[in-house]
Amino acid sequence: MALQSVAVFCGSRLGQNVLFMKHAAELGKLIAILDLKMVYGGGNKGLMGIVADAVLENGGKVMGVIPKVLVEWEHQHEGLTDLAIVPDMHSRKKLMYEMSDAAIVLPGGFGTLDELFEMLTWNQLKLHDKKIYILNSAGFYTHLLNHLAILQKEDFLYEPLQGRVIFCDNPVELFNKLA
Fold first, then answer.
1. DSSP per-residue string spanning 34-88
2. Of 46, 67, 115, 135, which has the fewest CB atoms closer than 10 Å, so is most exposed?
3. 74 — pLDDT class (breaks 50, 70, 90)
4. Rounded to 10 degrees, what is the CA torsion of 35, 37, 41, 45?
5. What does the domain layout of the chain look like in residue ranges?
6. 120-153 confidence digits (pLDDT tens)
């Protein structure tokens, strides 16, 4: 089945490396070119805002999913195709998973890691079989890649991650794997 939508998980802050911002903007443009609907956290700040703006600027569709508590804190994006305001973080993640066919993870903080690990856990438990693409901008997730290899080597995973978690070094590589 062809992808119709992707969940994008990333920071509500910019980070220190300008490559994170450049990759976020490139990825947004490529999502629009693929005619995929982007589902994300609904904010207008940080990498989240950059990706959403780039999708919209290139004629794409963006659905934001934001909990009531974060509407003011993350400054909800006003120009989205769709915006769902949900009661809490758990409802946010659940709706984002339901509305997407795959996930893309960019650099981010605790929230991004929480979303990534919940997707991985649900994948392992066979609650879904959605692929997870990790944009390893400037090696941001290289240590995680190494740690996942240790988990596999030490037999803490029920099955191999190959084909489920796909690490990409730049948006074009990710685009080619999605297309």
1. TTPEEEE--BSSHHHHHHHHHHHHTT--EEEEEETTHHHHTTB-SS-SEEEEESS
2. 67
3. low
4. 30
5. 5-178
6. 999 888 888 899 999 999 999 999 999 999 999 9
Quote the CA–CA distance of 6 and 88 in Å, as a whole number: 21
133 and 105 Cβ atoms separated by less than 8 Å: yes
- 56 neighbors 62 (Cβ within 8 angstroms): yes
Which tokens in the block code for residue 100? 């997407």
Does residue 179 contact residue 30 with C-beta atoms inside 8 Å?
no
Residue 104 neighbours by CB under 8 Å, 6+ apart? 6, 7, 8, 9, 27, 132, 133, 134, 135, 174
Q: Report CA-CA distances (Å) from 89 to 51, 73, 111.
A: 20, 13, 10
Task: Please say whether the beta carbons of 23 and 137 come within 8 A.
Answer: yes
Dmax (CA) for the chain in angstroms is: 47
Which CATH number fits the domain 5-178, given the four candidates 3.20.10.10, 3.90.76.10, 3.30.70.260, 3.40.50.450?
3.40.50.450
Share of the chain above pLDDT 70, in %: 99
For 41, phi and psi rounded to 5 degrees? -70, -5
pTM value surpassing 0.85: yes
